[in-house]
Amino acid sequence: NVTACDVAIQALTKQASATAEDIIYGYGFNPEHFICNDEMTLQKNSTRWSRQILTQGFAFTLQKMYDDNGIFKDKKAILSFTNGGTESMFQPDGIHGDFNVALWPLQNGVLRFCGFQVLASRSSGVQHSPPDVRNAMLDAWQERLNSVFAEKPLSFAPTKHFDLTFQG
To answer: Which end of the chain is more exposed for a tag (fewer CB within 10 A), N or C?
Structure first.
């Protein structure tokens, strides 16, 4: 987790006016807090960060939401995970199914809702990979991040097809 984060910080710092650390740590996120073997601690930290940052008034309002009008409409977001399995386990025909199905609530219901242009996620099973495979995963991650600002976001149902007016 930390190595993938370090690769991201390094690649994004070369491209952005603010460093990735400024962005990540400025919002109160510390990736080192997410290194744990206790799933409950991980869930608690993730939930706490989400509740502090992705809040009404800061990340969205009822007038400013979704990718066409949201507060973060000019920003891109990407989800990066390490998991305890191999890549084939998280394919549509894998034992755990398509990883993107599990990410839908985060991609659409949180990130897109706050206005982000959501990029395709990244997931890797580094725990069960030999060093040369881990290094290849990190190299591919760095290569992707080198052009991430030109990457096209995922496609979602257009908001114009929905009534987004709120009474009250």
So the answer is: C
- Domain locations in the chain as residue ranges: 2-161
Please return the burial class of 163, using the count of CB atoms within 10 Å of its CB with bins 0-12, 13-18 and 19+.
exposed
The string of pLDDT tens digits covering residues 133-156 is 888 988 999 999 998 889 999 999
Question: CB–CB of 79/120 below 8 Å?
Answer: no
Tens of pLDDT, residues 43-54: 555 566 666 778
Residue 60 pairs with which residues in a beta bridge?
A: 56
What contacts 24+ positions apart, CB below 8 Å, involve 133-140?
138/3, 138/4, 138/7
